[in-house]
Amino acid sequence: MPRIYLSPSTQEYNAYYDGQGSEEYYMNLIADAMEPYLTASGIAFTRNTPDMTAASSIRASNEGTYDAHIALHSNAAPESLSGQLRGADVYYDPNSMRSEQLAQIAAANLKSIYPVPTDVTTRPTDSLGEVTRTRAPAILYEFAYHDNPADAEWIRSNIDAIARGVVLSLTEYFRIPFVEPQPIQTATVEVSSGNLNIRSAPSLTAPVVGKAPDGAQLTVLGQYDGWYAVRYGDYEGFVSGDYIVLNY
For 169, phi and psi rounded to 5 degrees? Predict the structure, then answer.
């Protein structure tokens, strides 16, 4: 199961154009909205907290083992151009093929929801620490300009769509199915002998990450092509729908 470090902005001082909320506030709303999509699609995550900084987020990311580091931000123009710029950028490390690959996928999905697709770009950086100083391949989103009313209102009105697009990009990068979240329910394991394998992906050839005995109660997080994304104790993964009964 892929693991990511999720790092929404900690810049509470970057107010939106009308003073209603900050970059930190809205990026954390996007991170909140990502969580059900990540869980349903079988992507484990660790998340920073608002009292952290970019530097401490980098340290926390590097102390763990992650397959990607995802930083969420909104942008602001220089003072002389305040409110005049629009567009979205995805920054990547030019010395990392995986970072660039992830940025290209991320930008493609962002273009599908941003109102001016031609204004979505990927940009190499050698100065953004959350891109260049993390052990895991990293990208940094600048979703839009929060000092521009049209851009800021686009973010506010599309929290879920933005979150969905970020997770969709991750599933494409990791080459795993994107699973739509559903209301969480429970299911009972029904096997005639042995244990039910919990796998890292919805495939009989995927590695087994855990086992559940007959009668075990699973938390069901999502459904994909006859498979269910589930949680059982400390394990999260996928099980075949042939061996569980949903509890209604």
Answer: -60, -40
